[in-house]
Amino acid sequence: MAEKQGVSLKPSDAKEGGGGLIDNIDAVAKEVKFTLFDYQGKAAPVPAIYAKLVDREDNEFEQYWSMGSAKDWVPSADGKTLVASGTAEALNAGSNGMIMITSLVNAGFPEDKLGDDISVLTGLDAHWSRVAAPKRTGIAQTARADGKTYEQTILCVDKINKLPWDKLTPTAKGGRPKGGKKEPPPEEGGETDPLEEAVKATVMGLVAAGAMDKTKVIQGVYAALKSNPQDAAKAVQLVNNDSWLKAGPWKYEGGKVSLG
Q1: Within 10 A of 145 (CB to CB), how many other CB atoms are there?
Q2: Is it the case that residue 12 has pLDDT exceeding 80?
Q3: Do 258 and 212 meet the contact criterion of CB atoms below 8 Å apart?
Q4: Is-contact 26 126, C-beta < 8 A?
Q5: What is the pTM assigned to this prediction?
Q6: pLDDT tens across 86-107, in order?
Q7: Whether residue 124 sits in one domain with residue 200
Q8: By the number of CB atoms within 10 A of the CB, which of 84, 146, 159, 186 ranks highest?
Q9: Residues 43 and 153 in one domain
Q10: Quick check: is 183 in a domain?
Q11: CA-based Rg of the chain, rounded to a whole angstrom?
Q12: Rounded to an integer, what distance in angstroms lies between the CA atom of residue 204 and that of residue 260?
């Protein structure tokens, strides 16, 4: 199956639309990629930017910024790009991920360095602070145990200490990246893709008891493979593809998958 072209990460190409709360720290983005994020099992998986941030005391923090809906975008198998799973042509400028990237550009990150590969941010050394999230129709504030609500915030960049491609200079503790690992070459594929066969078997198991909405099938496949993010991303990309569903050993009609 041919890999689709990734979507542009440039804020100027986005369109208007609809982890732990770290704040006010200097940290290096040690690893940055796209993944699927289900809010610790509390919601359907959505495409998101994942970053492992390392502060000056070598503390590590995992952060996620949502990028919209899995109906529109899913991560590529290597996690570097987002590829279309629906009809959307540009990222939503109001998504948490694009708000963070826009703050990065406003802080001095050259937009022409942003193509479709999010790994370009790996090695970024910046000061990170929280800003208020925009008010979104139909999304309630999160309630605390005492019944009160708190303001939704997004971790953003307000100052760049070093760009990823700048030569690093020795300092005290600082979580400096040691250079990205070289990606192994892709393995030669045979006539059958073991992952695709596993996804087919998973789908068959999910709909064995009756017809199931495509969205529910996507959630079930993701839950079955989420321990391996790369496999889960590729699996969701397959199930999101109507042509792939229509060619499967089941019946796909009216947005539902069944054994016929």
Answers
A1: 5
A2: no
A3: yes
A4: yes
A5: 0.65
A6: 888 899 999 999 999 999 999 9
A7: no
A8: 84
A9: yes
A10: no
A11: 20
A12: 11
